[in-house]
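Write out this protein's structure.
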Amino acid sequence: MNKKKAIIIGAGPAGLTAAYELLERTDIKPVIFEMTCDIGGISKTINYKGNRIDIGGHRFFSKSEKVMDWWQNIMPLMGAPAKDDILLNRKIELSTKLDAPDPETTDKVMLIRNRLSRIFFLRKFFDYPVTLNLNTFFNLGLIRIIRIITSYSKIKLFPIKNEKSLEDFFINRFGNELYLTFFKDYTEKVWGVPCNKIKPEWGAQRIKGLSISKAVIHAIKKHFKKNKSISQKGIETSLIEKFLYPKLGPGQMWEEVAKIIQEKGGELHLNHKVIVINYSGLKILNINVKETDSENIKTISGDYFFSTMPVKELIQSMGNNIPSEVKQVADGLMYRDFITVGLLLKKLKLKNNTKIKTINNIIPDNWVYIQERDVKLARIQIFNNWSPYLVNDLNNVWIGLEYICSEEDELWNKSDAEIVQFAIYELLKIDFINKEDIIDSVVIRMKKAYPAYFGAYDKFHIIRDFIDKFENLFLIGRNGMHRYNNQDHSMLTAMAAVQNIINGMSAKNNIWDVNAEKEYHEVKNS
């Protein structure tokens, strides 16, 4: 008797988690088709001359114990200090397991990293998330601070009752003055449209319960008691102080998962694009897959189908017989694309004015959010601070400059050389670097990195109602659900879908519920 087969479209966190869970918990064989030559989707790691790029930055932290345990089962927690911990004589918490790996002698290890991200605004550093502390008071000045406190007090007394936009969401939690100072311009850099044109669901999923009061309370508590727990229970995700991180970047995790899947009998086909999804009634029958480097097209049948492909492309691949309103909504879905400029430097012009020790005294941030209105640059990653093993030579500084745009934008359509020169010009403009310290550069582009919460998004329920009727089709992951999920959310959607198959459930509500509420659901075993 032939084994049942699950066809999985996409080898990102959601697709690979679905395959892994199927192999661990069922006798269903997963077959994965990935249109690129890479593993991990947006969570992949790019190796450029021994210097590794984490696209967008991926902190391995989750409020789901299942996800945290899952990660550590694949890549165990470090039992000895990392290279920078040793050089700086830094005291850190380590795994107490007898066989816990040493990152200096093995690659398959999860590091414990300290988190620090700050905002760069008015050519000064501010805490992230924004906290009304002495540093903020000094940087902004008394008049601005009075306006911020006044507007925050006013909104606490008279909140916007019906949040219709992301602008309403921000103002309700931070007040109008702080919204205009720190949130409006940066958010519009990311999305390319005014905040009052974006649905509030984005804020609910990304910021959740964070507010000024919670940030202040957390900052006060930090001075009296350090939270040494890796799980950091009871702390808002935006306020976590440490996170896990694969030694060689996020792609290492997913490459390891892909290896395990193949060793256990699953199939993985890279450079294969799904071009047609064939169905009859309310059941998917098979898919037509084209090899990206040839004209060869194969028809692949399956019992279950998991899709992480962009919803717009999924609907287009289902042919012309779908309802016109479904096609119309899908055609109106929008995305934002992502450019990372990797820049290798001798040093940064900016000095480390914190009390945090770093190698060569570079600034200690994982990310720097660029709030300056005179540049398009959104964020800067300091890869040295994510993992010392991402950098070929720790005497250099390896940074990633992040730009968010759309495929039709002028920036996206520049050549790589033009983008590099543009990025360098912007860094010089904000006094981040000296030109003579530049050693090398590379440009990485990622299409459809962010599903947008505007365009036809407010009618997305029409697509969901149509797709959810297909009993053997499961939409999972960020682009698969057109939802701005972190990788742990994407994993939880995959776990929920596999659980539905095990339980014989046809409803998909539990999949859509992941990251849709204040505290997203923990997926429980039956």
